[in-house]
Structures are given as structure tokens and as C-alpha cells.
Task: structure prediction
Amino acid sequence: MRLLHTTSFQFKEFFDSQVPKYAILSHRWDDAEVSFQEFEQALRKQSAALDKVLQCCRLARFRGLDWAWVDTCCIDKTSSAELSEAINSIYRWYENSEVCYAYLSDVLWKPTADPDVSSSRMSFGNSVWFKRGWTLQELLAPSDLVFFDHQWEFIGTKSTMSALISAATRINISFLSSSNASQRATVATKMSWASTRETTRVEDMAYCLIGIFDVNMPLLYGEGRKAFYRLQLEIINNSDDESIFAWMADPGRITGMLAPWPSSFISSADIVPSYASTKSDERQPYRMTNRGLEFHLPRVVHYLSQQNLTDADYQILMPTCMIEFNLNCATGRGMFISIRLIKIVGIWYRIERDDSSPTYSTPGYIDNKGKARLKIIYIRNSGDLRLPS
Result:
């Protein structure tokens, strides 16, 4: 970890237990940021990009901290190895900081000049900082997060501003109290926090979530949206939280089990664990294979007839059977969540999520003797079909 001395403005690398206490900056990147290579020369002339770094150092010194970390100049981005290490470590770096200073360059905070504080509150809640992908982890990870406006006037802390932050981000206040608190959220809930955020590069929409899900993965710029599929596979390899499958597809869309993008989770903010819905002690592990996502599912299926689908549907899709099974999660209203799969020309696809009543009545995962009756199926994640209208 390369840190910047807050007085001498010299860089020094630290490893593991050697890392001293430090402050960290959170901000939105502009077009002309100061890079690691340009920093020494940039010190000779004033600029808005340099001012962010200097202000962070000034605040750190006031707090008695000798070191600071700023992403623009503390990472040598010409080194792909260093960039990959930084992105895989950055959540932990924010989490371990003594204090994080969040600079909201588009906010004007003048509560003393605004009797009802409405315009200042609106300015804060509308900040683009709350809409960027990378700043999500910078909001969740630090234990001490302090906000400043575009003139570096103090706004408040994550604790004092929690109600406004929750309104702007759709993150429940209970998950804002600490990094540990946010880690207790289900996969689907965390994905919902990112569902309306954006990044400049497509791949970064997956890479900015690495730390939030406590996984690691190599960076492959140029892979496009495949990065988000890889992220989900890493999550599956490290968690049995089936809410990762509780996303919503467009009506009539036939897909694989993995979501195409975080926006698919926009309606999943209230999902909680509910192992009673699946008898998880009898649930078999699932994994990705070269035949698709392998699931052990009920042998009881719905066999489709011409009464289930129109003749036109039959001619186009030739479906043979459908199956429905519960996930180990539920909505905040106590509704179990199940997934419906359809088999078309020997291949299984996901067709929709269904929020059923608390009384489980979907096809029998457990037989009348209390034993699981399972068969192995493989759900392809390639291809994207649409049911005929």
C-alpha cells in the first residue's frame, strides 16, 4: 500500500502489519486528476485536482495523522499488476482507515443561510457521489466517514446524515452503522444498492463490487458485461445465499440463472434469509459446470400440455416441462421466493421469480416421508429468449 506523507508529500510503500494509521479520500474523478507519475510536477502549480489531495492531507494533519491515501496518485496505474492488487484490496483499505473524507464537489451546504435547510438537504441527496459505482464501497466500508461540500465546508458524518443517505441510496439505515452491519445483508440486497449506480467503464460495474461481496477476481478489461457473470460465479463459490438468484427479468424473457446486470436486482432490497422455506439441511450444493449451473431439484415437475401454452408457443419453443423451487430467502413481508424453470429442447432455462405465500405449496421438494426427492439438472446461462406475445 503506497501512502502519501501529509507534510512532506513524499510517497512510501507499506506492507501488511507495517501500515501506519492513515486518512483516506473519497471523491468523484474529474477529467484532469493528478496521477502518481505527475504528482511531483503537479505540486509546482495550483489545480483543482491537486487541491483535493492537499485538503485531504490538511484534514489528516489536523487529526494528527501523518499519512493519507488518495486513489488518483497513490496507485501506479501504468502497472496492471498494481492496479489489480489495489482494486482487490481497496474495500479493506477504506475499512481500515482512521477516517474517510468524502468530497462532494457538486454540493453547496449552507444550512445557516437556509432557514428550513431544504435546499442544502436536496443538494446533498442529489449529489452524483451517491450514483457512482465506486463510491458505494466508500460509503459502506469506513467506520468514520465525514462529508464536505465543494468549498470543503463540513456537512456531517455518516452517522449524523444517515437518514438523508438512506433516502438517496435506498440503503436501510441499519446497514449504514458499520462495515460489519452491511456484510449481514443478503446478496440480493447488496446488489440492489448497486442497481441504479453507474461506472465509466462497463467492467468496473463488477469490479467495484468485489470488496462488498468479499471475493477476489482478476481484472480483464475488454471482457465487457462478462465481468458481472464472473463476479456472480465468485460469489456462488463463496456463499450459499440463494438470493443471488432472486432477481427480476423483463416479462416474457427466458434466461439463465445468473442476472445480466445489477439493475435486475432493483426490486430486491427487502430480501432476507429464510431457511425454513427450503429445509436447507437437505439442500445440496450447486456449482457451475461446462454444462451449466448444476442444481439438485425436485423430481416432481409440471408437464406442460397445449392448455398451458398456445399452439404458436409450442411451434416456436417446444417446451416439455416446468419446475418451481423455493430459494432460501424471503421478502421483507414474509413471502417465500421461488424460481420457475422451463425445459426447451432438452435445455433448462429460468423464466421468472415468484413471491408465494408463507405457506409453501410449490412442487414437492420433500416427499411424504420427509425425504428429499431430487434430480440433477443443468441450467444454461447462455442465450436469451423471449416468449411470443
